[in-house]
Amino acid sequence: MAPMHTAVLTKGVPDFREGKVAFDEEGHLERGNTPTVMNPNDEHALRAALQTRVRHGGRVSVMSMGPPGYEDVLREAMASVYADDCVLVSDKQFAAADTWATAITLATALERLGDPDLVFAGFKTADGETGHTGPQTCWCLDVPVVTHVVALDIDPEDRTLRAKRLVEGDVEEIETVETSLPAFVVADPEFEPSYRTARHRLERKRLRAEARERAEDIDDHLTYWDHEDLNLDPDYVGLDGSPTIVSGVDPIPRAPAEREATEVDPTDPEAMGSVVEELTPYAGGD
Amino acid sequence: MSSEPDVGFDSAAAVDGGEAFEAVVVGAGPGGAAAAAVLADNGVETLVLERGVEAGSKNVSGGLLYAEESAPFALDDLFPGVREAATERPVTRNYMDCLGDGNVHTIDLSGVHEHDTAWCDSVLRRRLDSWLAERVHERTAAAGAGLLTGVHVDGLLWEDGEIVGVTCDELDPIRADLVVAADGVNSELAREAGLMDWDEPEEWFQGVKATVDVPPAAVNERFGIDENEGVARLFAGDLFEGVRGGGFLYTNRDSLSIGTVFHLDSLAAERAEPHELLDALLTHPHLGRWLPDEYEEREYAAKLVPDSKKAAHPSPHRGRLLLVGDAAGQMQAQGPIIKGMNHAVSAGGLAAEAFLEARNRRDTDAAGERYERKLHGSGLFSKLKPRRYGAVGRLGEREAVADAVDDLVDSRLGRLGVRVAGGVVGRAFNSPFLLGALPDTRSAYATVPTVLAEELGAPVDAENGAEPPSLEERIGDLTYDTDVGNAHIELVDDGYDASGAAVTACPVSADGFGGGCYREETVRANGDEERVVSLDTQPCIECGTCAVVAETEWTHPRGGKGVDFHEG
């Protein structure tokens, strides 16, 4: 049985947190003045991949498509999943790609990586928010996709995968599905890795120590691929290969921040009584 | 305990009824580290489970670490380089200051300090234990397992009435041929096995400590030492309002450990506030010459200390379970001798040897019996529980005898005797033989030192401007990872008679203070008033005092939760 090979897709996105993100006067994102961070949802994909690695061993690769500045994102992703290596698919020809052109590019890169047994992705990016890229990529690869996964059980010998997934994104309704490897797994934010055995925790600790050593010379583990490496025709990637047309962007008007507030002296029993009266209807029960 | 639904698939171990290791060591203090190192070095697949986020984060000691010439194991033999890497300073000077009526009389304790001592270093536990844990992980990993932090072993795994392993909050049950409980003074495993209890306040001390920030150069200058020297001072006399106990000051690399240790029964009976007793020492004029102008406290900590004379278990094992260190009550406190960690190291080594011998004979179930024989045969147990104490000490503690001795020493005749015999008293405090018989009465801690100071002492000539933080500030300065919704201590009886002593005895609670663990409250119902006690475990520093003085269901917090000591 060959060791498992797992790949995790990640993306750099603008840091939309308050105080980090910059907008111009018309409300458009100022990309140059906003730092790039790892897409927050990719965290779940990395957690799922790490659990797979701890339980079944093998090799984990991290892959991203973007400008050379994404290197820091890959570094972060590599550190959090204790990855063995990472690939940055980077070329001016790939710029301004929509989800379709991105999927073609990523699928080609995954083939070049050696057709991993499992590919993990987060369920959508914080900038585009389409949730298309993952499913389109696995369509290109012609492998099954399981989305909204909250728990995984892999049998590397039978080359099967059982997954618990949320139906309609609701934790109240969970179904179990089974498919064969290779497969594409989209981890849900509800994905909780489980390390309930001492041996799994010891393995995770061993991998962490190894990853720290690799982090010392990360350049030895980082590969860049451009369109020539992937043998991709520039007409089918990047802006030229993107059928999606963004006709315009409408800034969402800020919600009014006005609220009615009354100040109450906590030592004044009468005033506090009125607070209780106000809140009673919301308290529920009796 | 978690309220979240478990949506994951069962791990293979849960399906098979638990994973197995040859040995499980619970707790990564010096005792657990010693046991694990000896086991792993002899090829035993050893899993070490530590509940702190890092080894040392739950551990507090005074703390002086001894290596005794007569002991079967010394920490630096098991862990070469430990003194260079992880201890503070070697103690090269050792004194006891008797304080009374503004006077101080100093006794040089070199005699007792150097007796049987190969070396003695001051330590801070976070640094020491985390360093040891790294070495332990390397060695246990090489033997097929390793050390995990953040795992709380919460009980024993039983099968047909026999102990076959451990259960954990964070992991599926683990089976093992050997379970070493080195899980400290409040060992849940020792209690589940019925070997130890929290019943008698007389069996315990409570220690409270402040780690005070002082730059290395200032330590050297204020104590007149160089960087390879250190000072240990003990304090006794009239500074603690008659509560039985004393104080200590140890020099570290760049800080001072200053603390107080009191008999828990005395502390509870006097309704004394531990933090106030500590402050009485910290602000005493005598300490002014050592404390920095700007008093800055790095950490406030506390710990329950077993009195081995009463609490050390003569056969600390049951089936596959062997108790080591504080978990077995192996903490020697006799007058100025305070030795715990070294005995835990010896016991850990002996427990491991006992298992190895039993394993060679394919009879691992005999490890406990062998461990017991080694504890007694090596002389360790007689250090913990001297027979002399049994004959003389217990008699001396009976109230009538104690009062008579107190009155005698304090009488004119007694004072004359003290003047004549001042040097003799100093020699007595330096005699390990006599200290073994020393009764735990007011005479030893308060009356004799006070009279010594009054009759023979010189006036204290220092001034002390130290302003220690309030209890509220001390709690605020500690780091906690609160396990919201999972209180680890449950108050079983909230009546004031049953549990009221915790309001004062708990080191993070105080009478009239609302920000601590225990509070007194008055409940009015049906025209009656009732005094009750309420508990909030958020500020808990996990010392275990309330398990002894109040009616509680006491457990440690889940792995990685609760207080996180940085100094310890």
TrEMBL record, chain B:
The lineage of its organism: Archaea, Methanobacteriati, Methanobacteriota, Stenosarchaea group, Halobacteria. Residues 22-347 form the FAD-binding domain. Coiled coil: none annotated. Keywords: FAD, Flavoprotein, Oxidoreductase. Pfam families: FAD_binding_3 (PF01494). InterPro entries: FAD-bd, FAD/NAD-bd_sf, FixC-like. GO terms for molecular function: FAD binding; oxidoreductase activity. Its cofactor is FAD. It comes from the Archaea. This is Flavoprotein.
